[in-house]
Amino acid sequence: MTGVIGGLLAALMWGTSTVVASRSTRMIGSQQVLAYVMLTGLVVMAVVAPLSEGVPDAGGRGFAWALLAGVTSVGGLSLTYAALRVGKVGVVAPISSTEGALAAVFSVAFFGETLAPGVGAALAVVTAGVVAVTYHARLEDVHLRPALLAMAAAAVFGVGLIASSRAGNAVGPMWTIFVARAVGVIGVVVPLALSGRLQRPGRALPLAVYSGVAEVAGFAAYITGARHGVAVPAVLSSQFAAVATLLSFVIFGERLTRLQVAGACAIGAGVAAVALLQS
Questions:
Q1: How far apart are CA 201 and CA 68, in angstroms?
Q2: How far apart are CA 232 and CA 251, in angstroms?
Q3: How far is CA 159 from CA 155, 209, 216, 233, 257, in A?
Q4: 129, 202, 247, 270: which one has the fewest Cβ atoms less than 10 Å from its Cβ?
Q5: DSSP E strands: which ranges in 104-181?
Q6: Residue 274: CB partners within 8 Å, gap ≥ 6?
Q7: pLDDT tens across 109-130, in order?
Q8: What is the DSSP letter of 87?
């Protein structure tokens, strides 16, 4: 059940972060938002990591996984924010939501993780439901550039979910996130600052700070849930796309189609089945 709870909490945190980022990226640009998300996360984890986990004790391989988790986190967020800036949430979210399914496939194919047939079928239902719920754009809203950016983000995040799990087991969840955010600050904030392009966030600051806190909280929940296997928490955490879409309906007054209602029912049934099979 730890994997189920961790995946669901991560979905809630990342879903709210995605909705907020869809607004802030239009205010100051995707790279600016990403920079402040990384800074916020680093400040938070610089306090939380040593207080909760003390001094990390791990070999070079553990830190290598943590560095890979950092690179993929920064790369995936950068691609996602860039896609959100030029595309609609209803197009970007369902494509990027396949990250969990990709991570599950990678973990089974390359790292020897095993899944009971029933659990695998239930996770497939959840994935299909997420795509159905999040897709609410019209055909003319689907453009090549944001779609390709979202596809690339899904693949990068899929690798990152595995790397985060492995690093979390080696150095601890909080230190894993700290390393990831340190990589983000070095790779995003420093170049922007040195080039004079790191502008003040202005009214976007509260939005960027919230996204930064929500992102690290989501990763902490996911890594904790993935201690005994990647597939279940990875697929369940991909519901962040459904959370983002449902919130956008509530906040922006959009309506659900019959397909999306059916998708929401499929998600509920799939999650319930996974919880029962994992209990």
A1: 28
A2: 30
A3: 7, 25, 17, 14, 32
A4: 202
A5: none
A6: 4, 119, 122, 123, 126, 232, 236
A7: 777 777 777 777 877 877 777 7
A8: S
